Amino acid sequence: MAFRSYWAVGVAVILSCVAVAQESSTTVSQGRDLLRASAPGAYSVRYLPDRALVATSAETASELRVYMPAPPLWGYVDGDRKPGAYFKWDPAGRCVVLSLDADAHSLQIGWEGKGRLPRPDQKIALLIDGKRAGELTARFTLEKMTAEGSVELPFGVGRVWADPSGALSECLGARLRIGNEEITEWRRVRGRLQGRGHVALGGTRLMTLTLPAYNLLETPMEAIDIEPLSISAGAKRVTAMPEEGVLVEAEDFVAQGSGNALISEGDHIDQHGGKSVYTFTGNGHWIEWEFTVPEDGEYDLFAKISCGEDMSFREVRVDGSLPARAFRLVQFPGTGGWAHAPGEWWFMQIAGGSDALPPLRLRKGTHTLRLKGVFEYHLNVDYFMLTKR
């Protein structure tokens, strides 16, 4: 019987070899025969620290010989567990021998351990300030655990904690994604793992925890705990700006500090008056505008903004004071981009859209409006509009 050999390159302790042949038989080799099949087809073998992973696809039944460093103790064929005795051991060839029907098959053949599989439907609790708010459902592969779930988060900014269920290395390698933000660095604090930095909160968020580790059987995390640091009030999205009112172009600011906002002239699309403000950064960067109202009264405040991050936060002051407590931290949503594409400018009602953010009580005359960046999030602004109730 004629065989053809195919070569592949090994990586670290994991060796992968693949062959596709249309002859009467197939051999996969790496200095020695790793896999032989009596029928042509597509075959691959991958060696991990305690097992060989084999994938086959053939149109006829075949006898398979797979190299093993030691006799088999356990195995799986198409997901069904088999005892080690199911696989015939050829000590002279140092290989297992088995027969497979035509079609595609997947096999795991182990020479160490017991070949246990993780329990299905393992959960990781999702907590908000220590109180259960949801859960992540864990899925396991040989190389990692991935756990996903959604949770309704309060608006604001928070810190992430992880509660391990067993001993974990300092170099954990855990990655937690909350919306578009990701935490990859952790430190131990009194038996817990604290994620480095802050994350923006607000609305329903998909959370994904990825933990690289070989052959995990149990989730090493009991809970993910979101600790809100600052609770914000959300500006309200509206479908259109009012047609009449007091117009304040963002580029007409009269002062700024702790940053350097730039004026865009054609770098962003659909700019009112042909200009807008960008690189309005966070971390204390403030911009101030002046405006004049024609009479005493209550005024709603609107803004046209864009934000390519998950969200952005601003403190809003009028004439140097907070109109209400909630204006200390106003949250603006991510709009999908920085106004370089259609639909990335959104209209937002800052004052007058909720009980927490009431309308501005203004006397006739000139006033100042100051927005100050809180945390590190950026915001683009095109213009403001104030309308009397």
Structural class: mainly beta
**Mean of the pLDDT scores?**
88
Instruction: Give the distance, in angstroms, between the N- and C-terminal Cα atoms.
Output: 92 Å
- Which residue ranges are poorly predicted, with pLDDT under 50 across at least 5 consecutive positions? 1-15, 18-25
The total strand number stands at 35
| CA gyration radius, whole angstroms | 31 Å
**Main β sheet profile:** 9 strands, mixed
In short:
The protein is an all-beta fold and 389 residues long. It is built from no helices and 35 strands.
Describe, in plain words, how this protein is organized in 3D:
The chain is mainly beta. It has 3 domains: 5-110, Chondroitinase Ac, Chain A, domain 3; 123-230, Jelly Rolls, CATH 2.60.120; 234-388, Jelly Rolls, CATH 2.60.120. Helices cover 0% and strands 57% of the residues. It contains no helices and 35 strands. It has strands at residues 5-7, 15-21, 26-29, 33-37, 41-47, 51-58, 62-67, 74-77, 80-83, 88-90, 95-100, 103-110, 123-128, 131-140, 144-164, 175-178, 181-183, 186-189, 192-195, 199-212, 221-231, 233-234, 236-238, 246-249, 255-257, 262-264, 276-280, 286-293, 297-306, 311-318, 330-333, 346-351, 360-362, 365-373, 379-388. The strands form 5 sheets. Strands 13, 14, 15, 16, 17, 18, 19, 20 and 21 form a 9-stranded mixed β-sheet that branches. Strands 23, 24, 26, 27, 29, 32, 33 and 35 form an 8-stranded antiparallel β-sheet that branches. Strand 13 and strand 14 (131-140) form a beta hairpin. Mean pLDDT is 88; it is low at 1-15 and 18-25.
